[in-house]
Amino acid sequence: MKLTTDYYDIDDLLSTEHKLIRQSVRDFVDNEIKPVIDDAAQHHHDIPDLMKKLGSVGALGPYIPEEYGGAGLDQMSYGLIMQELERGDSAVRSAASVQSSLVMYPIYTYGSEEQKRQFLPKLASGDFIGSFGLTEPNHGSNPGGMETKLTKDGENYRLNGAKMWITNSPICDIAVVWAKDEEGKIRGIIVERDMQGFSTPETLNKWSLRASKTGEFVFDNVLIKEENILPHVNSLRGPLSCLNSARYGISWGVIGAAIDCYESALNYSLERNQFGKPIASYQLQQKKLAEFITEITKAQLLCWRLGTLKNENKATPEQISMAKRNNVKMALDIARESRQIIGAMGIVGEFPMMRHAANLESVITYEGTHDVHLLITGADITGINAFV
Ligand code: TGC
Ligand code: FAD
């Protein structure tokens, strides 16, 4: 009996430091997330002090250099951290993804020295909660059509428009927001909670990511000073480069959700007897379990290779799209099928499958839908862009 989720000894490819980092986040998830996650998801509330707790285990901006409050780790470490967090819940990984890849990354990459020093250490510690506004009511898969406008007002600017489906919007202290200037160039703006005309209504009644807050951004003539505009970005490449980092983290993260479902189903099927034998002894159930570990192993190998390419700064957006698309679908399929293996027990919160499956319905949509990522691969291999 092989009760391992490292079927191909991928651990041999990791350093001692990687394994120590993974273990510390695994312990954090076992002690701080697993005991409270079902209640948080059932009652649609977030986990108290989550961001500060994530900051204390080094999960916020792990690859940001230490001089700005990050941990200065490599991309493999970032991936392993995301994997362990999503073993707990996609909402926890989402919080760390947004803060690290969608808020700290653009400030670090496109911000001024003052902006980096002002915001990054507080984001790394979790004292500040960050949010990222790209999607709009009329522009989801095609963010290039955005209508949010940044217009000149004397020496300053005014921001008008709206963003939708924004993770952590209702609780954010700052937001990295993308808007078009009067020349049609896409600019990144750091919007702060207390700016007049900025509001963040919550999106209620979600069936997915119930331990995470989602909401809107509304900008009603918000006064923006030059010092809040990211100086080193002026095109769609800016927000899309942030997505590359977040999508990479998701590719790893969802392996954690799949492992949690697989382990729960395997253990249950070895203990649960029907017709006088464990359900794990029946070929139909073995087929499911064998396919789960096969798909998890393939996803791990994809991520390990992608992590290596990322460390060498060679991973292409198209390679990242392939991993995001493949691994999220893999995890969603395993969550759905593993719920069936445990029968009626699969519908109660004592087991994690239904929660992971519901969460993964968001994960397969955000950061580029399943079909959008397929079209990115299609365009790459044919040279023909099928979006338009
Ligand atoms: P297209 O003409 O293809 O590209 C426009 C410019 O951008 C460049 N580019 C990229 N650069 C860096 N990384 C990438 N991944 C890039 N993809 C494209 C491209 O080279 C071009 O540059 P230039 O200099 O020639 O102008 O753009 P398009 O208008 O045809 O649109 C296609 C695109 C890429 C937008 C679409 O494929 C896509 O990715 N749509 C999905 C949108 C999306 O993922 N939104 C995510 C919102 S954030 C979110 O969901 C957070 S969830 C958080 C959580 O809780 O975890
Ligand atoms: P649409 O773009 O309207 O797509 C609808 C359907 O049409 C999809 O199936 C899509 O694949 C398909 N489609 C679209 N274009 C094409 C095409 N050319 N060819 C074929 N099919 C196509 N956004 C942020 O900016 N920040 C956040 O923090 C954030 N957090 C989120 C959190 C949650 C819980 C969710 C659910 C979403 C979040 N999003 C966030 C938004 C997310 O990125 C968008 O939902 C996503 O990009 C898809 O946009 P849409 O929902 O408008 O769908």
UniProtKB/TrEMBL annotation:
Residues 241-379 form the Acyl-CoA dehydrogenase/oxidase C-terminal domain. Residues 131-222 form the Acyl-CoA oxidase/dehydrogenase middle domain. SUPFAM superfamilies: Acyl-CoA dehydrogenase C-terminal domain-like, Acyl-CoA dehydrogenase NM domain-like. Residues 16-127 form the Acyl-CoA dehydrogenase/oxidase N-terminal domain. Coiled coil: none annotated. It comes from the Bacteria. GO terms for molecular function: fatty-acyl-CoA binding; flavin adenine dinucleotide binding; glutaryl-CoA dehydrogenase activity. One of its GO terms (biological process) is fatty-acyl-CoA biosynthetic process. Transmembrane segments: none annotated. Keywords: FAD, Flavoprotein, Oxidoreductase, Transit peptide. Its cofactor is FAD. InterPro entries: Acyl-CoA_Oxase/DH_mid-dom, Acyl-CoA_Oxase/DH_mid-dom_sf, AcylCo_DH-like_C, AcylCo_DH/oxidase_C, AcylCoA_DH/ox_N, AcylCoA_DH/ox_N_sf, AcylCoA_DH/oxidase_NM_dom_sf, Glutaryl-CoA_DH_mitochondrial. Belongs to the acyl-CoA dehydrogenase family. PANTHER family: GLUTARYL-COA DEHYDROGENASE, MITOCHONDRIAL. This is Acyl-CoA dehydrogenase. It comes from Chishuiella changwenlii. The lineage of its organism: Bacteria, Pseudomonadati, Bacteroidota, Flavobacteriia, Flavobacteriales.
